[in-house]
Structure formats: C-alpha cells, structure tokens
Amino acid sequence: MALHDAGTIERMPQISFFRTLAAFTFTLVLLGCGGGGDSDADNALGPDEQGPPLVGTDLDRFRGVSLASAGGLPTAALEELVATGVEWIALIPFGRQPRFDVPEVQLRTTRGRWSQTDAGIRRIAEIAASAGVRILLKPHIDLVEEIDGQWRGTIAFNSEADWLRWEEDYRSFILHYAALAADSGIELLSVGAELHKVVRQRPGFWRQLVGDVRQRYGGSLTYGANWDREFEEVEFWDLLDFIGIHAYFPLTVKMDASIEELELGWQPHVLALEDLTETYGKPVLFTEVGYRSITGAGVDPWDWRVRRSADGGAEQADAYEAMFRTFWHRLWFAGLFVWEWDPAGNAVNTRFDTGYSPQNKRAAEIMSKWFTHPIG
Question: Distance between CA atoms of 62 and 13, rounded to whole angstroms?
C-alpha cells in the first residue's frame, strides 16, 4: 500500500458479444482444471513440482487478508481469522532501496516486523498450514528516503549501467524469496508490486525474471500491479497464473455515497478488467484491496495520508459490500486479499480509528459474510 498520483481509467471498453463468449470459454477452461483446494501446504514446492490450479471451479475464491504481525501469530488470532472465513494470508517482506533513483536493493531477512523476516515467514507458514490456511508471499520495495511525488512506482534510472545494476539486485531479491517460498511450502508468490516505471520501461527484464523464478519455484505466480494505469501496461501477464491488482480504484466523489452508487462507480473498472481477462485468459486477483474508516471511504481509497474524520466504519463497510456485490459472482474473479489485518489489533477503538483494518468494525462482518457465502 502506498501513496501515489491519482488517476482514472481513460479507456471505456464497450460491452460486446465476444466478451460474453470469452467469459464462457474461460469458465469451461477453469472447470476443466480440477479442484484447487486439496493441495498440501506442508510439502515444499520445488521447481519440478508445479502446484495444482488454485482456481478450479466457480466455487473457489481466494479469501485472504494481508497480515501485519509485529510479534507472533497466536492460536486465538488464527482461530479468529479462520472463523471469519479467511483461507489465505499475504505476507509482505520489504527490500530497502535508498531512494527512487539509486540502483540498489538491499535484502532485509532479519529486521522489520516479525512477519517480514525469513524466520517469521517460515514459522507463520507452519502455523497457518496446521489450520489449513495458505500463503501468498508478496515482496515489496521500500524507499528509505521519501521525496514528494516519488515512490516505488516511479523507480527509474538515466543510464543503462544503473538499470542493469538495479536489475541484478532485484533479481537476487526476488530469487531469495522464491527459494524461501519453495522451502516453506508457500503456494503463491508475487514477483513484484507497484513498480510501474520498471514494468513499462524494462519489459524484457520481467520476462527473464519470471523464467528464472520458474526454475526455482513450482508454485503459482502473480504480480501486484497498481490500479492507476499500470495493470493495463504489464506485458507479461501471459507468463503468470493470476492478474494481480492492488485495487484501490476511486468509486465516487461523494462523501457519503450509497452502496448502489459505489457499485455504479465500479462499472468502468469492471469493463477494463474484463478486457484484460479476455486478452490473457487469466483470472483477476485483487492482491490488495481496502478502505479506510473515514468519511468518503470510496473517494480515494489509495491515499493513506488524506485527513478526514472517522465515521465508525460505516462507509468502509458500505465500500466492502459494494466491492463484493460487484465481483464475487464473476467467474473470472479469483478473489482478494484485504488490507490489512493485525493479529494484535483487538484493542482498536473503532469510534476514532481512521485506518484500513476492518477488525472489530462492521467491515469485518461484511467480509466474513461474503467469505462464508456460497457462490452460485
């Protein structure tokens, strides 16, 4: 999750007979893949062991949350997640880069939140597997020096030498987590997140990187593309298993939009996503999605710095309801990972909280209703 420039999707694809036909054909392909819920997370996925398809029928969805654990993962916290219908946890380790234009990526395997360390990732994978919960490992780049208007999406360099140096570091960074994922039985790995300029300017690098990762890791792959134009500019979706999107799309300009108005706000984005599934024949996965507990929760969901008053989570809950109503029944939609969930977050004062977590708020009830809701 990061603050970045706002934008809107300029292209408005037209609904067509071919979209309906492609969706039906895509459904038949999914149905022919077999079930995706019987894989054994205790077994390591090596490069010669391709994992089973994770979306096998129209009843399968990723029901996930992004986990932010500074300490352990207590049994009670895991039981709470399972009780809400959560079946997947996203873990997000960070590589450190001095600033957006410095070609250096540093591994941080022992520092940061416990859930971001190698030891924490291994232990959480073990604990989660014991409860039948599976893992998405989604490494991010963290910029040490913050500069206005610059973030991981603007990482770029002026010389070929700097590009090659950065690519070498980033390849080592991702291959480290590919090996960790394989050794830990982790079933889904993201090869990157929100690196818009790198994606746009160095497409050949990504195709080579995905090939390198496939040699070391036999699980499923995705990439977490930013909602603001990037997801339409990724040229290597054909090499991945899921079209991953950080889905902080703007839905309204109103401070107190109704659920129906928020659903309407999704429609241009739905059309763009449908076009993407038709082009690549891959399901869409929201690798991140979330809303803050503020007035105007659907106006600028990506902006974690905007200052508005807390509303007790009412608009946050409405935004989740609109999102689930819009996507949960679509056969090309693979599911989602809610941003974010802290196992130690039980003390949140929902009256004054303006953060993203749905815990102890009505949004958690909405999430649980849909996560446990039969899809048909």
Answer: 27
**139 belongs to a structural domain:** yes
CATH code for the domain of 143: 3.20.20.80
- The total of structural domains in the chain comes to 1
Q: Is residue 15 part of a domain?
A: no
pLDDT tens digit sequence for 8-21: 222 223 223 233 33
Omega prior to 278 cis, within 30 of 0:
no
How far is 239 from 241, CA to CA, in rounded Å?
7
pLDDT confidence of residue 23: 39
The predicted structure's pLDDT at residue 89: 96
- Say which residues have a Cβ less than 8 Å from residue 349's Cβ, sequence separation at least 6: none
> What residues make up the domain containing 303?
43-371
183-233: pLDDT as tens digits:
999 999 999 999 999 999 999 999 999 999 999 999 999 999 999 999 999
Q: 46 falls in which pLDDT band (50, 70, 90)?
A: low
For residue 234 the two structure tokens come to: 């990724």
Q: Which residue has tokens 């090996």? A: 179
Residue 106: DSSP 8-state: B
Residue 179 to residues 76, 183, 228, 288, 298: CA-CA distances in angstroms? Answer: 30, 6, 31, 23, 38
Residue 105 is assigned to a structural domain of this protein: yes
In a domain, 211, yes or no: yes
SS3 70: coil
Closest to 81 (Cα-Cα) out of 376, 374, 367: 367
d(CA 336, CA 348): 23
User: What is the SS3 assignment for 326?
Assistant: helix
The pLDDT score that the predictor gives to residue 114 is 80
pLDDT at 27: 39
User: What does pLDDT average to over the chain?
Assistant: 85
Predicted confidence (pLDDT) per residue in 281-331, tens digit? 999 999 999 999 999 999 999 988 888 988 888 999 999 999 999 999 999
Which of the 8 DSSP states describes residue 256?
T
- 3-class DSSP state of 61: coil
